[in-house]
Amino acid sequence: MTKLFIPYIMGNKDLIENATLLSENGADIIEIGVPFSDPVADGPVIMEAGQQAIKQGITIDYIFEQLEKHGNQIKCQYVLMTYYNIICHYGEQAFFEKCRDTGVYGLIIPDLPFELSQRLKQQFSHYGVKIISLVAMTTDDNV
After folding, report:
1. pLDDT tens digits, residue range 44-62?
2. Annotated catalytic, 97?
3. Which of 60, 69, 110, 123 is deepest in the core (most CB within 10 A)?
C-alpha cells in the first residue's frame, strides 16, 4: 500500500504561496477547502478556518481566480473540498468547466448524496474532474 501526504488548507489570501510551499515539500495532493457558511460536515477547526476565510472575503470565485493565474506554481495535483450548495449556486456545468480550466484534479463534496454523485460523474466526466466519494463506517455495503 502506498502512503500519500495529502494536506488540507482552507482557501485564504496566501493560498498559492501555501500550496506551492506544500507541493515543494512533499505533498502528493493538496486538498483546498472552499469556505461555506453552513459547513455541517466539518469539525471545529475547519469550521473556524472557514469562518475566518469568509470574513477575509474568500469565495469560490477568489479561489478559482488564484488557481487560474498562479495554479501552475503548485507542483502537485490539487482537489477542492466544497459543499454542493456552492456548486448549485455557481451552476453545475459552469463549475465543472471552471474546475477543468483551473487545473482542479477532483472534488470532495461531503454533503453530496451517493445517487447524485453518480449522475454528476456521468454527466460531467468529459471535463476530467474526479468526484471523490467519502465512505463512513456506516456506509451501506451496496455502495
Report:
1. 898 899 999 999 999 999 9
2. no
3. 60
Q: What is the domain extent for residue 110?
A: 8-132
> Which residues are CB-neighbours of 90 under 8 A, at least 6 positions away?
60, 98
Residue 26 sits in a domain of what CATH number?
3.20.20.70
Catalytic residue among 28, 31, 92, 111: 31
What pTM value is reported for the model?
0.91
Residue 142 is assigned to a structural domain of this protein: no
Task: Specify whether 61 is catalytic.
Answer: no
Instruction: Tell me if 138 is assigned to some domain.
Output: no
* Dist. CA 143–CA 131, nearest whole Å: 15
| Mean pLDDT, the chain, whole residue set | 92
Q: Where are the alpha helices (DSSP H) in the chain?
A: 15-24, 44-55, 60-70, 84-90, 92-101, 114-124
The residue annotated as part of the active site, out of 17, 38, 42, 48, is 42
The three-class DSSP label of residue 135 is: coil
